Each structure stands twice: as structure tokens, then as C-alpha cells.
């Protein structure tokens, strides 16, 4: 076993750990090393960040303004230095161990070692650039990389894990991406998994910094991994879908609104919103289609979608874009026709039975693109009614008609409008039928010249 540990806490923070077992590492695995036996083996700063771990020989850890470690200093003067982008994306790690210095640079999905490109990360594995060979991960249900195989199916690495992510055994340890697919930094005995928002010490089953959402979960330690239940849960990267007790879905960023009772779903979800109509999300970007689909597969087959999800107007985080880009590199792209009636993309999740968590922006795709005048947008001359949606059904109805105003009908019984802003225009109506049979009615005004709709405005819910 990994150890027989007794932990002494000061509040929620670790103070001391004693291991009653003898050395137990097996077959390339790692274990907790009880290097010292004293109080205050661990120390924390005012933000709750770990600053000392005497059992690892760490005398100081310094953090940046995002509470991400920027310097780890060992008693023997070895150091690990981290460099990040402004949004917290890791760019470089420098290890100075004795007289040796190694610099690892992360440039999107390409990893450099001391200035030399070493590997190209893909969704399925990686390409080693020195020999241009493909390597593929075989994962379990939690996304743990269990087996690494080459293009011919030959086994290159096998990993076994303890429930909390410690490597129980590893045959032919050739690459660092292990538990949950996260990068393990094992140099100098650090043994931290990089979860992006926080570093995770699997030998102890705790994070090194506080969960930004900890105030939502007062009964749970802000350092604990997966609520202490790693068998049934995995810890997402901090931006995922959740489901509340009423069955509503919510998208939440780490540190954002995560209510008590929400359960984690994952980074992708398909939500049925009316008959033969689904919102299929990749993280917080979604595609409305006539059936549940794998959103990544759609993006991989559509250059238009790639531009929307990866472009400068995308509301995906840089980390999300990087993950998507890595997968697309592996999959390759083409512009084949799709048997799915996709017609709308939302860039940012809408209102799903909870607070508005993102700005929704619609685009027209596929066949609909040829039917809609791209200049047919609300003129913004004023509003005479409620135009803010109150739920997902209303939001979808409004997005649909804004995307294709010609889908509505003239209300023939009503005379042309005499409001000077839209003098002579016609009152129009669009009816959206939801999954429960309820109808959402939207009124707006349109300027017609013969049989051609030239302008629209004043969209509102009836």
C-alpha cells in the first residue's frame, strides 16, 4: 500500500503527517515519503496556499496573483520555476536540480525541451517529433491513461493507480500524462499533478491551494480531492456542466456560481429542448441540431465551426481552445457534408434554469446560410415590450427568429404600423413550440417591399 498515514490538521490545513508503514513503492510507483517527524511540517500563506513541505524537502513556495505556484525552492537550493500567460495558462517550467537545468516550454500543443520540439500533443495521445512516431492512450472510465501503444498496437507503457491517483505501478515510464490525463511532475520527488487551476498531491489526496468555490461547500475541506470520493468522481479542470436537483443543466467556471446540490456532469452534454432539437455543447460552446451528436466530431468536420470555436470572438477560455486545437490536430479536418440539420451556434452557454453564465451569440450555418439575408438584423430603433428571455425555451426561440427573421409570418389582421419609427411596416409573429407543447410567441416588425423582407426591428415576447 501507499502508506499508513496519520495526519494532524490545523483547521482544514495539513500540519504534520506520520507514516507507520515501511517503504512500499512497487514497480515504478510512488509513495508518501516521511522524511521528517515534527510539528509544522507544512505551512500556508494568508491565501491558504501551501508554502512549505518538509517531507519533500521544500522550504518555500511562492505564488503569483492567480494563486498559481511560480517558484518551488528546496533545501538543497534546487528550484522549479513556472511561467504563465495572463489567464493562467502554463507556458514554461524550469527545473534546476544540482548543476543541471532543464526548461520545458508549452507552445499550444507542442512541447519543447531546452528549445527542441519534443512532442505534439493530440486528443488521443501524442507524436514524438524526433522520430515522427504516433503514440496512443488507452483510457479507463475516469480518463486515466492506463496503456500507451504505438501505431502498430505495441505496448509502450502500462500504469496502475491508487484510488486517489497515486501511481501504484508503472512499466516503462516514458511519458508524464497519467491520472485523469493530467501531467505529473515527478522531478525532485515533487509528484504533483497539474490540474490547471491547482496542483494536486496524489500521495496525500489533497490540493496544494484552496478551491475558489469552497464557500459553496462549507462541510467539505477546500483542499480535498473530489469530495473524498475519487471512485465515483473526477475533478474537472474547473469549467464544466452541472445538473441541479430539478434536472436543469448549468455551465459553471471555477470560482463561479456552483450551488449546493449541483452534481457534476462533464465538459460535454446534449440537452433536448424541443422535439427533434438538441443543444450539443462542447464545454460552453454549443450547436443546435436535430439529434444528440458528438460536438467535437462536428467541429472536426466543419471549418466554419472551427473558426467560430477557435476564433478571436470565441468565449472559450484559452485552455479550452488549446484542448480543442490539440484534438483537431489529431483528427484532421475536412469539409464533408453532414447529415445533421445544424443551423445555430451559441458561443457561451445561455440561461439554463439558473443565472446567466455567458453571452449568447448566434450564427447561421449550413443550408440556412443560403436562405437568410445576413444584413437582416434589428435596426435598434426601439423596443415596445419585453425582449429579455426568462428561460432556455424563450432564449432559443429568440435566437432562432433573430437568426432567420424570414421564418415569421405577417399578422394579416393588423393594419400597417403608424409609429413614425416604423411607419408603414407590418406586424410579424413567430411561434416556437417547446418539448412540453407550450408555445413561445415573439412579435416584431418588418419592412416589406413586394415579397422581399428588407428590414426588421422591435423583437419582443408576446
Automatic annotation (TrEMBL):
Domain of life: Bacteria
InterPro entries xref list: Rhs_assc_core, T6SS_VgrG/RHS
PANTHER family: PROTEIN RHSA-RELATED (PTHR32305:SF15), PTHR32305
Protein's name in the database: RHS repeat-associated core domain-containing protein
Organism in which the protein naturally occurs: Bacteroides intestinalis
